[in-house]
Amino acid sequence: MTATLPGRAERTLMEGSEALVRASIAAGCKFFAGYPMTPFTEVLEHFARLLPEAGGTCINAESELEAVGMAWGALATGERAATGSTGQGLSLMQESFSELTLAELPMVVFNMARGQQDYFQATRGGGHGDYRHIVLAPQDVREGVELVQLAFFLADKWRNPVLVYGDYLLAHTQEALTIETLQFPELPPKSWAVDGTKSGSGLSGSVTPLGVSKHGQPSFGQEGKAQYIATKTPLMEREVRVETGFLDDAETVIVTFGSPAKFVKYAIKQLRADGHRIGYVRPITLWPFPYDTVRDAAAGARRVGSFELSAGQMVDDVRIGVSGQAPVTFIGGVSTDHSGFGMGRMLDVDVIRDRILALHTDRELPVIPGYEEFTYALAPHQQEAAR
Amino acid sequence: MSTHTPRGPVLDTTVAPAAARIVEALRPELLLTQEHHMCPGCGEPLALRGFLDTLSEMGVAQRSIAVAGIGCYTSFSGTMDVDLVQALHGRAPSVATGVKRMKPDAVVFTLQGDGDMVNEGLQEVLHTAARGEQVTCILLNNGVFGETGGHMTATSVIGQRTKNSLDGRDAEYHGYPILIGDLVSRLEGAAYVARGSVHNAGAVARTKKMFRRAFETQVERRGFSFVEVLTMCPTGWFVPTADGPGYMNDTLGEVHIMGELKVDGVVRTTDELRIENEHRQHEIEAALARGGLDT
Amino acid sequence: MTTVSIRSRGTVTIDAGHCKGCELCIPACPPGVLAMSTEVNHMGYRYPQLYAGCTGCAACLYVCPDFVFEVFRFNQPVMSDVEVAE
Predict the structure, then answer these.
(1) In angstroms, what separates the C-alpha of C84 from chain B's closest C-alpha?
(2) Which ipTM did the prediction report?
(3) Which of A71, A177, B1, C37 could lock onto A81 through a cystine, CB 3.0 to 4.6 A?
(4) Which fold has domain A242-371?
(5) Distance, CA of B161 to CA of A302 (rounded, Å)
């Protein structure tokens, strides 16, 4: 369905997954490989349908392990390529994610997460060794279209994987949109890529996570390669992106990201209207995390809350940012639907507003109706732990 | 095979003879250096020469891309004069898939060992073959994890002693070896499947022809191609280097039968290959007696 | 001992410095004109030495993991005398 409003470009109603895929194609993505898994599945479906039309290739990989390998190969030839899954599928890809960073391959990875329980996986990585991925967390489809294109740019700019962190809501919400191709600064040609034309010339190239190079060419060695990547990582911290609101006089600061951030912002607007001095910090990049912004916001605040749909993961970064200037309270919680795929009972403006207000007025956090039955009870042999 | 001890003076072999031309160079044209870290008696460099020279002879070297797995042979990643993508252990066929889809005119091949391909990444090679990807997978099969010092792999044969099967591979306890070439040959997408060996000069020459047919299959876009090569690993087998070829022929070679397992869609049985091999051996011995092997 | 005259179409050079002494070339040589040295190279390995009677068949090169052989073809075949045990 398309519609044109007066004075605006033609817009098409499409679900988030399709918008992210169309944004990828606008960014020049030529290859995608993936394996179906809710709520990521539609991203694969749209790539399978739209990428060939755009002159690219989408492979229905037989497993996540193979999907990430295929994208690895495509990237090594210098083309823009991506893969994705839910956090569960990304768990299977972690070895590659770590080594892709050492190989300096600019992979874009989509995580349409179940809930928000993959924050650690995204920002700390489940893989081995010292590595970081830039993580972009759009709050809605519209922002997703921009951040996906930014992801491809940043991946190439830094030759480092970039992860787009979405969820069930982002993947499935329908919005009327125009996919505009964004312009980014020009990047140097990918002279590191291999296409076979240098074979047999004495100057053949290699794309490798190892510290070796072709015989006769300078190489780092394993020790040097690890040092080299370790010194690149802090430079990528310059890419921090963050949105803030109502911080000037805020007594209470809420930190929140992704789809739930929109709900939190709405709840805070309602509370502001009632005269409560509450502000928010929304990290757009989960890594690099906006520690400085959180630090400055906490400087004048009496308390800081972290709202996320997990058992409390981002709250660690919030604590690092706050650095003891104010007490930090986790006000989110695990919240999926009965299937475990979608968003649970906590993603509700009324629920969120009650929790923020409880924090703001130094009251105990309300219990989520229905969740008490899932509360872990100590067994007799564990009573020791309660003392 | 020689049976006598040479006599007379040792000839000077440090300088090129007069009035002669080089017919086989010291090292393959596509190797940047002759030096490598393989152990004495290793079979992998013999297979390496075979496929590198084949790429040169076919005139496709300047559009070839290698995807290397992880094993002893990974040290050739830096010395092959071929554009290369280094894959993780077991993942080379998928990486090659991505490369080939983006560079369909390139000759794309993987280089993997049995630990890499048949243990860690078995599904990768099977799926890639089933998909009929226009790539060539090369397996260097020595039935042992050579790089870790001689441990059992999925292709180790029954009775084979390794560091973690000290009394020999026992079918009841360790299970049976996978005949990967046979498995791959059964897949519709696989167009050419062969199992070579480097235990003697004749086998090396025969294996080189297999590389040629495999690469031709890819160039002609007839489907997935696969060459398995049995290679000596005297270090990992704990045998003297000079005994490597004999040990291999008597153990691995009796289970992983050398021959072309699939040509033009026709799959051959193990018995057919055994008979074919006997004929071949007679022919090769006759050729050597005439003074050389024409490859 | 008997001396026979054989016709050779080529010969080899040996880069003994890169040999790792595996001895694979010794049984591979059809005329049996390679034998291991008693001396060792700089790496401590014995290496093959060539005696009269090489035909330039390249079998040694095919089985040499260390790429020490180079095979030459004579412009004109050469006759050489070889001593063989009776």
Answers:
(1) 7
(2) 0.95
(3) A71
(4) Rossmann fold (3.40.50)
(5) 69
